[in-house]
Amino acid sequence: MKEKIYVHVADDHKIVIDGIKAILNTDKDIEVNGYSLTGKQVLDWFTNPENKADVLILDITMPIVDGIGVLEYFKNNKINQNVIIVSSYDDIKIVQEMINLDCNGYITKNNAGEYIIDAIKAVMKGEQFFTPSIQKELIKALSGQKVADGDLPDKFLIESLTDRELEVLKLITKQYNTIEIADLLNLGVSTIDSHRKNLLKKLKVKNSVGLAMYAVKHKIV
After folding, report:
1. Which helix (H) or strand (E) holds 87?
2. 3 state SS of 103
3. In CA terms, which of 14, 69, 83, 168 is 20 to 30 Å from 76?
4. 34: closest CA among 50, 26, 2, 89?
C-alpha cells in the first residue's frame, strides 16, 4: 500500500464532513484532500486535473446532483474512481443499485466511525467493503431469501409505485374517497383499499393526509 491514501469527503452537512475528517485524521496512512457539499462540487472537483483522491467518501442525498448522479457520471464517462457510500439509507435495494453503479463499498452513517478506516484500506487493496448488517442482507438477497425493509431515498420510493398506485395517489390528493376512486377507475372498493394500504406502506406515512402531503412535496400532483 502506498504511503498516503488521499480521501475526498462529500456530504451536504458540514458537521458530518467534520466528523468523518476527525476520524480519518486519527490514521497516519490517510489524508483528507478537500470536501464537497453538493454533487456538482464533487463533479467539478474530480474533473479538475489538478485534483486527485484515491477514495471518494460519498453521501447519496446531495443538492443539485445527488450521489446517484455522481456515480452515473463516473460510470458513463469511464472515470475509474474508488467510491465508498456513507449514507443513512440502509435498504438493500439502494445498496444493490450503488453496486450496479460501481461503488466499492457501502457504510451506514451510524456505523461510519467504526468501519470507515477499514473500508478505505480494504478498497485500496482492491476489495469491496460492506458493514456486517448490509453484507448479511446482501447474502440473503443473493440466495433468494426475504430481506428486511430499510430506509430508501424518496426517488426510489416514488419509482417503486405502479402506474395504478400513482393514479390512486393523485385522486387521494384531490380528496376523493375510496368509493369515489373505485367508481372513477372502474375498480372494486377492495382493490382501491389494497392500493391505499400499499401506498401507506411504501411511502411510510400513516394516513391519507400524509399521502397527500408526500405527493405535493415531491411534485407528483
Report:
1. strand 82-87
2. coil
3. 14
4. 50
pTM > 0.85: yes or no: no
What are the two backbone dihedrals, phi and then psi, of residue 130, each rounded to the nearest 5 degrees?
-135, 145
State which H helix or E strand residue 203 sits in: helix 189-203
For residues 57 and 116, the answer to whether their CB atoms sit within 8 Å is yes
Question: What mean pLDDT is reported for the chain?
Answer: 88
The position carrying cell 488521499 is: 6
SS3 content of the chain, % helix, strand, coil (to 5): 50, 15, 35
pLDDT of 204 over the 90 cut: no
Which residues, in sequence order, are CB contacts of 50 under 8 Å at separation 6+? Answer: none
Q: Which three cell numbers stand for residue 193?
A: 383499499
Pull the grid cell for residue 99: 453496486
Residue type, 2: K
Give the number of other CB atoms < 10 A from CB of residue 80. Answer: 7
